[in-house]
Design a protein that fits this description.
This protein is mostly helical. It contains nine helices and no strands. It has two domains: 51 residues, Arc Repressor Mutant, subunit A; 128 residues, Orthogonal Bundle (Tetracycline Repressor, domain 2). The longest helix is centred in the middle third of the chain and has 25 residues. It holds the Pfam family TetR_N. Keywords: DNA-binding.
């Protein structure tokens, strides 16, 4: 798991001691579970505390409220997305960049497919800003790996947009594909576009 990245907007400082970090990870895992199984509407600090086996007071000692905890969950997932994309691109050859990028997006969203829609539904301004930062970071990583051109930038925006749209709407507008198939078909589409754009 990548290191926890907690921004100033979340107003929570990352813990320095191993025990405190483990406690934070336990709270964030419980929050992900509650969000995935009960949705944004029924997401409460009490439900998270119960899932984590902690008191509500223990949650309040770390977070000022529900919104701050939701931001921390989103921040952690977006950090994973950034890390997964960077690692996939670093390990890919020049001909595999598009497939590695698309698979990294799909794998991250597939692992958290019940959480991303909930986080997208309940975004506040600071959460939207963090999301845009993550999308810009993964687009930069792709452009650096694939070579900067208008076609490469367009491919990055299209693949990212398709992935986010799919994650946000899959409950309401299912396409019948698993994430692996989606990644393969999206890769073919992107490669065909890049070949035509040369």
């Amino acid at each position: 798991m990548p290191p926890l990245h907690v921004s100033k907007a979340s107003a929570s400082q990352p813990p320095q001691q191993a025990r405190s970090r483990a406690s934070l990870e336990k709270v964030l895992a419980a929050a992900e579970h509650v969000l995935a199984h009960h949705g944004h509407e029924d997401f409460t600090l009490g439900a998270v505390a119960e899932q984590a086996g902690l008191s509500v007071g223990a949650i309040y000692r770390r977070f000022t409220g529900k919104d701050q905890l939701l931001y921390a969950v989103k921040d952690q997932l977006l950090t994973r997305l950034e890390t997964n994309v960077a690692e996939a691109l670093a390990g890919s050859g020049p001909h595999d960049v598009v497939a590695a990028f698309t698979r990294a997006l799909a794998d991250t969203f597939a692992t958290h497919d019940r959480i991303f829609p909930e986080l997208l539904d309940g975004q506040r301004a600071d959460g939207r800003e963090r999301g845009l930062q993550a999308l810009a970071a993964i687009q930069r990583a792709f452009v650096e790996a694939a070579g900067d051109s208008q076609a490469v930038r367009m491919t990055a925006r299209t693949v990212i947009g398709a992935c986010v749209h799919r994650a946000a709407t899959c409950r309401y507008w299912p396409d019948g594909l698993d994430w692996t198939t989606w990644a393969a078909e999206t890769t073919e589409l992107a490669l065909a576009y890049l070949a035509a754009a040369k």
